[in-house]
Amino acid sequence: MTLTKLALLALGSFGPPRSDPPAQGKGDVKDLAAVASETLAPGLDYARYEAPGLIAHVTRVALRSTTLRVRSVKSKGKESLRELATRLGQEGDEVLAGINGDYFRQSSEAGLPYGAQVCDGRLLFAPMKRSLISFGADNEPSIGIAELKAKITFAPPQNLNESLWVRLDDVNQLEQEDERKAGTYLYTPAFLGLNVNRPKGMIAVIETIEPALQVGDVCTGKVARVESGGTPVDVPENGCLIYFFGDAHRTMAARLKTGQPVALKLELPQVPGNVVQAIGGGPRLVRNGKVSVELDKEEFEPVYAMEISKRHPRSAIGFDKARETLWLVMVEGRHDKSRGMTFGELAAFLDKLGCWQAMAFDGGGSAGMFVRGQDIVSKSMGGTKRPEERELANALFITAAQAANK
Fold this sequence. Notes:
The protein has 5 helices and 30 strands. It is mainly β and 406 residues long. The model is unreliable at 1-24 (pLDDT under 50). It folds into 3 domains: 5-48, no CATH class; 71-144 and 273-311 and 345-405, no CATH class; 149-267, Sandwich (Jelly Rolls), CATH 2.60.120. The strands form 6 sheets. It has an 8-stranded antiparallel beta sheet, with helices on one face.
């Protein structure tokens, strides 16, 4: 079903469908035009854009819709976009569209993203100095770089004096990625299991934490048991682990006891409002309505700086100045009909769509888009030189309550 003229006028970026796809060749980003479009649900549209040698997929979301919901979803370990969409659909809401999320450590079976993730208000992973997109309770979006402000106390709930809190150094930190010789770390259920080998380490196991690591709230629980730093420990499904080593271990060794109360507070002070959903990526591509590829302002390894001039499959997200419209964008690449885009070309396309703020997600073989009724619409090529559905760490989905679609 093509978009109506009224929908085109209201949402403004999709051109009229064209019946004659462009011939294969070297088209420019400015030549990309919608050749097919479809309304997936009220307030949600999908279009396929083409130019010679380029194919892009765009899902547009009316953020003020009362029936649509933006969902940040963590894989169970690692799952493909198709598997994530299937599992999410089995959990209740109708899955309408989705796009791959953050860069991740492919060697980890736990599917650990590099950046932040908040799911339904619950912090799963802490931010790094890269762009993230967040959404409030009414889908209001924001893109920026954030730092985690986290603290912990083992004082009784009735005595949460500010002087008794101590800083948490990081969340879900991999041992081999940290050069510090002392610290206090939080491990969430998304990390799966902890097996650290630092000498003189100590792990406090918190079986239940309430509310469940919610951003901005004071979350409380009790120490169920204390383990040594060399002991493999699974993160409790409804709790967390606190790992102490170095000076932190020496300070807590005689004080930490089974049954002791614990309180945590996790904040993302640079992110406006109450964060309900968030997912990392980067770099920023559009700032205040202007193309701005900001690799140099984010913590990307030097090899990524070289990617600006290279064309690959790409995924990105952006929203308009009024924060009423969200665009999910996936560009095919590494095959004869679509060569992919550079970050600069991707930024220019996002600007053309009407994005006031925009950022990239993971690309290459990880790039993919799910559209209800069309399944996985991408044809990204990984190192296999054939269409790939790579297992991912996380993704962003647009869902609707089942009742709203009956």
